[in-house]
Amino acid sequence: MTKLPIGALLTCTTMLAQPALAQTGQAIPPATDASATSGDTADIVVTGSRIQRPDYEAPNPIISSDAADIRESGNTNLTNFLVRVPALVSSRDSTRAGGGDAVSSAQFGQTGLNQLNLRNLGVNRTLTLVDGRRHVAAEASNAAVDINAIPTDLIRRVDVLTGAVSAIYGADGVTGVVNFVLRRDFDGVAARAQMGVSQYGDGATRFASLLAGRNFADGRGNVTLAYEYSAEERIPYEARKYLRQGNRRYLVPNPADQPDDPRVPDQILAGDLHYTYISPLGAIFVGGEANPSFDGLGRRYDPGTPIAYYWQGGVSTDVPGFYQGDLAPGIDRHLVNLLSSFEVSDALKLSFDAKYARSNATTFGQYPETYYLPIALDNPFIPQSIRAAAGAAGAEGLFFNRDNNDFGRLGENDLRETYRGVVAASGRLSDHATYDAYYQYGRTDLRITRLGSRLAAPYLEALDAVAGPDGTVVCRSTLTDPGNGCQPINPFGAGPATSAQLAYFQRNDRSFARIDQHVASASISGDFGQFFRLPGGPVQFSFGGEYRRESSRFDPNANLVAGAYFGSDEPAVVVPSRGSFDVWEAFGELNVPIVRDRPFAELLSVGAAGRYSRYSTVGSTETWQFTGIYAPIRDISFRGSYGQAVRAPNIGELFQPRSTSQGFLDDPCTTRSVGNGTQYREANCRAQLAAAGRTTLLGEGDTGFVLNGVSQGNLNLRPERARTWTAGVVLRPRFLPGLTASADWYDIALRDAITTVQAGDLINLCVDQPTLDNAFCNSFTRATGTGRINNFTVGPQNVASFRTAGLDLNINYNLPTARLGTFDLRLIGGYLNRLTFIAIPGAPPTNNLDAFGAPQWNANFAPTWTLDRVSVNYNLRWFNATRAFTRNETAANPDIAAAEYLRNAPLWQHDLQIAYQVPDGFGFYGGVTNLTDQKPDPAAYGTNVPISPLGRFFYIGARIGLSGQ
């Protein structure tokens, strides 16, 4: 762990050379694009349309941020910056791509990923573009882009757009699009460097970039080369004192509320919690005993004092530390980008782009564990007290549980390399038409290394120790195979195991994946001005065609294929997978300016767009959109859109092979959980258990267990379809120069949604429906007689639907003064009115509004003050206190917890940056994020609720622009 005192950090200022993007820091007008093919600077290509038009005539709501906004945030991780946009609040940043989430058996290849989640409908429904073009995905299972592959300091601006953009860009954008627009005309040399560290001396970040560009041939050509490096230090769970055992508290069932008293909360906050009957020392069961008699040191097992389904005190494993992984993964990132263009003539402009991105991410999760494993009585490591007790009881053997802290945490290292190349030609066909054609190829190579996994056969051999012929302790297998190299291991006590012992059964095995993307596209844009004009101007058009092919493969290591790993730490069997599809598409768009510059009709225009797609997997799809803009006067305009968007199933959803899957199940049909669901749960549970031959509900012992099941893809999937409409108003009052404000309502209804219900939710969804005749009940079985769940099958299905609606608010006000400098005020706000999920048609809706990740109110306020060479930027990120329990839980149990625990704490993140620009292009800046050091809510189980545990974070940086624009 890097330790960097704050004082030493501040003295490093003069050693940093930070690359500026050779710009003034003034905001670029929203939705402008300097790469437009037209030479008329008044006409620009707006994200969400191929038709050139002024940005204020965009029919769909757009939230734009420029390079200065990113730099002033202090974030070198783009996702950490973009979660300031209310529509992206639930995006997946590094703190949600590490630890247990990334090392769990189902999450191969997701360590360190940064993926955008627009409108809380999933990363696979957010279309991420670079300069309006697709980008290759980051993992074999879905089409989401890793934002780590986007160069931070090459960005001109980022547009976040809601609307039926599938008609413009194709599938995947059912919730909208995030478009990264790069600098394509840079002339000069610029550099930037930044470093930072948390107040705890960890979580250090390093960032450096170098940008060099040259215009030539009288400005007709440009070559820009950019290199960028960034690193984020791994933060272990143990690094935060307030999260350690004895300091962190959890909501647990209230022992004083038996039987249930509506005046007493069902759950209370408790600390010093331990799991049941498992310990780093070992928990030894003699004979057929239900509870452990001894710990691994031969002492009587001290479980502590029972509290609900935990214990307080005793020798059992601590609740917070064992199963918790890293707070943030370690990420090392290199990016190289080449952008080049040359205008041969007005009729031909050639360009070539190339990219190489390398991201190396490492994280660690929980420790490996061993459950109910037999130990022969001739094992010489057995303490004498345990051996005597076994003899007195006439036991034929022992069983033991152990949390193997001395083995080290399980981990994963993912090396991701991304290649992307684009060759394009564009130009003017006439005074009223231009063309654009390009071919791009993208590839992601992924090497996944699982760290510390146990091979079952050698692990069991190492545990089966006996006395050797010379009195030494050896593996039993060594008696018949003296050269097998087995190292006996002692499971009694805390260890530690030696490196030689671990080397016999632990492996850092590697698996590989590759994702390929080919896109060829051609379009013609222009207007019919040479034939006719409407009172508002000529009708504009764009049409074209596109071909796209996506393919991916996953090659697991031989041990995974053979199911050679031990226990629940690893999946039992993972098989290789292959899949591909291609799609041919035709698209078109019209903008009809009905009237312009008339009394009470500054502008009235309507538009339409459509796309027909033919997939090799799911057949044909149609997407369309209608738009309209009405500005009675220049100061105010009204805009709206209505359309249908689609998302075709991705390769993972279609082609995932049949393999073993593990699920942590908490059966809802126990006496403890049967009242925590819908009104149908208890009757359905009793009926289902009766069908299995059981006459009573399940008991406390049937909660919290791991079970192997089956996971597989579904070749019968259909495309998802979404109906989207937006309506908004834009204000640009002439009496208040510098003010622009917009408010837009959005409504997205997604049907035939593809969802893979996890095993733990599968059972709840089954018994919480009005009837047991549903797809979820058919996906698991119960054992005859006991009624316990003994198998499950998970896979994607077109059974769900989503509905979300809300309001986006965007206010920008630039106020220059004669003596006090310039004030630039920006407020982005969000109101979430609706977020519902319906598991299957006819099922009761699940209201996810106001849950964590989906706050009802959300705002980001960012004022900047500039005076001469000094600028000060403040940023407040806020959202309301979110629900700690689902609505079903609180409806079933109004007294589920005391009032102060029913909601998680609201987010109040204050960031501050001060920058100074010195002559000759040099600039220095420093700042702090989470200025008030807000910590995660102590009552919330997740460590990121409502804020990450990184803590107060200090950073400094420097930048230089030696020449250029």
Structure commentary:
The structure is a single chain. The chain is mainly β and 965 residues long. Helix content is 10%, strand content 44%. The protein has 15 helices and 48 strands. The protein has a 24-stranded antiparallel beta sheet that branches. Strands 3-6-7-4-5 form a five-stranded mixed beta sheet. A four-stranded antiparallel beta sheet has the order 15-14-21-20. Strand 4 (127-130) and strand 5 (133-134) form a beta hairpin. The longest helix is centred in the last third of the chain and has 11 residues, at 681-691. The protein is globular and about 105 Å long. InterPro entries: Beta-barrel_TonB, Beta-barrel_TonB_sf, Plug_dom, Plug_dom_sf, TonB-dep_rcpt-like. Belongs to the TonB-dependent receptor family.
Question: If you compute it from the alpha carbons, what radius of gyration comes out, rounded to the nearest whole angstrom?
Answer: 30 Å
- Report helical residue fraction: under 10%
Structure summary, number of beta strands: 48
Number of helices: 15
Structural class: mainly beta
Query: Biggest sheet, open or closed, and with what strands and sense?
Result: 24 strands, antiparallel
Determine the N-to-C terminus distance: 40 Å
What is the 3D shape? Answer: globular
Mean pLDDT, all residues: 89
Low-pLDDT segments, ≥5 res: 1-43
Strand content: 35-45%
Family: Belongs to the TonB-dependent receptor family.
Keywords: Cell outer membrane, Membrane, Receptor, Signal, TonB box, Transmembrane, Transmembrane beta strand, Transport
Protein name: Outer membrane receptor protein involved in Fe transport
Subcellular location: Cell outer membrane
